[in-house]
Amino acid sequence: MDRCKNGALLRSLRIAMHSNKGGANKGGADGFPPAPVLQNGDVLEKASSNVLGGCADPAVITSRSSHDKFKRTMSDIQEDFSLLPTALADLETRISSRRFARYRRAANNDTQLAFRLYRWNLLISQAFYWPLGLYEIAFRNAVDAAFRTAYGEDWLLYPERVPTMQKYAKSAIKAARRKARDNYGNKLSPLKDTLATDFPFEINGQVQHDWVLSRMNLETWNSLLTDSYALSPWKKYLHVAFPNIPSYVDRAYIYDSAEHVRTLRNRIFHHEPIFHRPLRDDVLRLCQMMEWMCGSTHWLACTRTEIHDLLNKKPIPDER
Questions:
Q1: What are the strands of the beta sheet with 60-63, ordered from one edge?
Q2: Which of 220, 206, 232, 217 is nearest to 167 (CA)?
């Protein structure tokens, strides 16, 4: 069985940092071998092949021309290395050639550049992850607030109160109720330690509103902004969900933006490529939606993030 570990690159970088302390020819007390010095101050690093049960650490070439480079953050250090062909081949095998092919094409078949693009895609996806998570919770609560105002606090328990409720939404609400019951009945479910602490799961055999709300997916919440609900409830209560919208923004534009964000969210949460997307437009749509819902939430999601810096570090320029 292949037991390659994700810590291989970290181990190689650790070798480089250790070798920079006290000279290149000294062995380390931590058991790592010294890194042989190449020309122009570069270091070729490779751990022994038996360290990971028969799978060698990937060899990488890193620059160590200045001790200050090793004082930077790990992410900055990693930008300096280039993987050797054997390591690139191993990574492409693990990622799969079919999945990696899109990156190869974007990099004009430059494997090294393709890998940098793949890594950048992971980093930018990671940077989007928590703002999208915050957005999803804020968005569902915003839509729920408008429907509560229009149809009562327990409208999810009585969807028939919504005269324009579509069949898809009714089915989704019913499925969310079943899912909540299944989760609550599971002894290992973390829900028992969170929501159930402060809110009863059911009253008189009826699963309570917040439990159903928490089990509904983003697609369902988006569906409640379609044309079917244009007059009821959005004509009257759009400002309840989105109190900061400009006067020229209507439900249709909000729905379009919500779908835009949902598509981005799905690609990221399913580990798909996003490097080819108009990510600056994605950021604009996401941050607009957050601002229209809540200024404080917008501040947290759109200013306390690495997204903007990473967009400027893309290995391959955006197509114009």
A1: 42-45, 60-63, 82-83
A2: 220
Instruction: Give 291-309 pLDDT, tens digit per residue.
Output: 999 999 999 999 888 999 9
The neighbour count for residue 293, using CB atoms within 10 Å, is 23
What does the pLDDT read at residue 33? 39
Model's pTM, two decimal places? Answer: 0.70
Give residue 116's identity as a one-letter amino acid code: R
Nearest to 181 by CA among 201, 195, 198: 201
Q: Which residues pair with 60 in a beta bridge?
A: 45, 83
Residue 185 has phi, psi (to 5 degrees) of -75, -15
Which one is predicted more confidently, 229 or 24?
229
Instruction: Note if the bond before 58 is cis, omega within 30 degrees.
Output: no
Give the 3-state secondary structure of the chain: CCCCCCCHHHHHHHHHHHHCCCCCCCCCCCCCCCCCECHHHEEEECCCCCCCCCCCCCCEEEECCCHHHHHCCHHHHHCCCEECHHHHHHHHHHHCHHHHHHHHHHCCCCHHHHHHHHHHHHHHHHHHHHHHHHHHHHHHHHHHHHHHHHHCCCCCCCHHHCCCCCHHHHHHHHHHHHHHHHHHHCCCCHHHHCHHHHCCCEECCEECHHHHHHCCCHHHHHHCCCHHHCCCCHHHHHHHHCCCCCCCCCHHHHHHHHHHHHHHHHHHHCCCCCCCCCHHHHHHHHHHHHHHHCHHHHHHHHHCCCHHHHHCCCCCCCCC
